[in-house]
Amino acid sequence: MSGVSTASLEICAATENDVPLLLEFIRGIAEYEKLSHEVVATEASVRQSLFGARPAAEAIIARWDGVPAGFAVCFTNFSTFVGRPGLYLEDLFVKPEFRRHGIGRALFLHLARIAAARQCDRFEWVALDWNEPAHRFYENLGAQRLDDWRLYRMNGEALARLAQS
Predict the structure, then answer these.
(1) Active-site positions?
(2) Is 47 strand, coil or helix?
(3) β-pair type (84-94, 122-124)
(4) CATH number for the domain including 87?
(5) pLDDT averaged per 10 residues in sequence order, the chain, 165 residues
(6) Which end of the chain is more exposed for a tag (fewer CB within 10 A), N or C?
């Protein structure tokens, strides 16, 4: 991913040297979402998943006047209906002290440009139902909420049981 910069803002691809910072951001978004108890990521797991032999996702970092201010993690998915890739946003987070500077919007714009450059048909993500500021932010950008879809998840013992059956 190429970098984007303005007078005070720089957005660029994370590197392996950023792993401790990425883990700090992961803990920050988990705290904001009241899900800190679910964070089991370690520097080793983040390093392997983002910078190992087969990266599962990619991260970008926003720096405000050189100070890490926010990040996003995304990965490619695929739509069988349109036969093209999409970009899925796993997380986007701006530290509270850096909000209201347009950093979140700049991260979104950067991701939208990545999606367009990669000829993605879709740019998708989920938001917690209680996070009204996020809902307003996304809808103000032109996103539409898909109320007719439900997210399902299988992990832990349920996933292990199914895999062994």
Answers:
(1) 138
(2) helix
(3) parallel
(4) 3.40.630.30
(5) 65 98 98 96 98 98 97 97 97 96 96 97 95 93 92 92 95
(6) C
- At 126, is the secondary structure helix, strand, or coil? coil
Q: How many domains does the chain have?
A: 1
Torsion of CA 26, 31, 135, 87, to 10 degrees: 10
**Sign of the CA dihedral 132, 136, 139, 143?**
negative
pLDDT of residue 92: 97
Token representation of residue 105: 């919007």
pLDDT reported for residue 151: 87
Domain span holding position 9: 4-164
- In 3D space, the residue among 76, 108, 87, 91 whose CA is nearest the CA of residue 24 turns out to be 91
Nearest Cα to Cα of residue 93 among 66, 133, 49, 65: 133
Return the bridge partners of 11, or none. Answer: 4, 62
Q: How many CB atoms lie within 10 A of CB 141?
A: 12
